[in-house]
Write a structure and sequence with these properties.
The protein has about 100 residues and is an alpha+beta fold. It has one domain: SCP2 sterol-binding domain (Nonspecific Lipid-transfer Protein, Chain A, 2-Layer Sandwich), CATH 3.30.1050.10. The protein is about 40% helix and about 25% strand. It contains four helices and five strands; from the N terminus they run αββββααβα. It has helices at about 5-15, 55-65, 70-75, 85-100, and strands at about 20-25, 30-35, 40-45, 50-55, 80-85. Strand 2 (about 30-35) and strand 3 (about 40-45) form a beta hairpin.
């Protein structure tokens, strides 16, 4: 299981952000990862975002490993989206870069 820092580095390396948009992955007590399409970087900073995706770190790991589908997690209440929902939908393609 990767750490949050390892995941952030992999997302940064893959250019996993939406151009011109800020999307925050909020893992609660585990902290946050900012996919900053404005600054074209990925950081472990917390802050204002166009879209915030709230999900437990363990559920995120299951999604990254392909054990849990993002839509299923959303429907089960394991994943919540605040702000622009379209950014969350676009992010699915971005996160596919993690598997590559």
């Amino acid at each position: 299981m990767a750490t949050k820092s390892e995941m952030a580095a992999k997302l940064k390396e893959a250019g996993a952000y939406l151009p011109g948009k800020k999307v925050k992955l909020d893992f609660g007590s585990e902290g946050a990862v900012m996919l900053d399409g404005v600054g074209q970087t990925v950081t472990e900073d917390d802050g204002a975002a166009d879209t915030t995706i709230k999900v437990a770190w363990s559920d995120w790991q299951d999604m990254a490993d392909g054990k849990l589908d993002g839509m299923t997690a959303f429907m089960q209440g394991k994943l919540a989206v605040e702000g622009e929902m379209s950014n969350a939908m676009q992010l699915q393609g971005v996160l596919a870069k993690l598997k590559g």
